[in-house]
Amino acid sequence: MTIFEKIIAREIPADIVLEKENLIAFRDVNPQAPVHVLIVPKRALPRLLDAKTSDRELLGDLLLAAAEVAKKFELKNGFRVVVNSGPDAGESVPHLHVHVLGQRQMSWPPG
Ligand code: AMP
Hints:
This protein is an alpha+beta fold. The chain has a single domain, classed as 2-Layer Sandwich (HIT family, subunit A). About 20% of the residues lie in helices and about 25% in strands. It is built from 2 helices and 5 strands, in the order αβββαββ. It has a 5-stranded antiparallel beta sheet with strand order 1-2-3-5-4, covered by helices on one side. A hairpin with a 3-residue loop joins strand 1 and strand 2. The chain is globular and about 35 Å long. The mean pLDDT is about 95. It binds adenosine monophosphate. Adenosine monophosphate binds near residues 28, 29, 38, 90 and 93.
């Protein structure tokens, strides 16, 4: 069971900012920007590479939730959406999640 499944099951606390039938969004415990929210599907899917055509609706809902979080936190000047998949990307929790980062200037390319 990953740490995100424990948050979904309310076994460990998190600062939840949005919840829907199929996903939950909470603040990252180690924020990399003033706003850093993780959007996590309730059904455990390890990473994007494991997504199937049947996950299309869920994947769309994750991005729509990212936009909803951006609106909620009034990230009018922009924000970044990140999905880390696999070791080269620095994935540390094997449960698909979308990072939403905002309220600071981002640089490109990312590290
Ligand atoms: P990634 O590196 O893309 O797998 O992202 C995993 C993220 O989960 C990291 O940014 C961590 O800071 C975050 N994280 C790990 N444990 C927790 C937790 N208990 N509550 C909130 N965020 C967490």
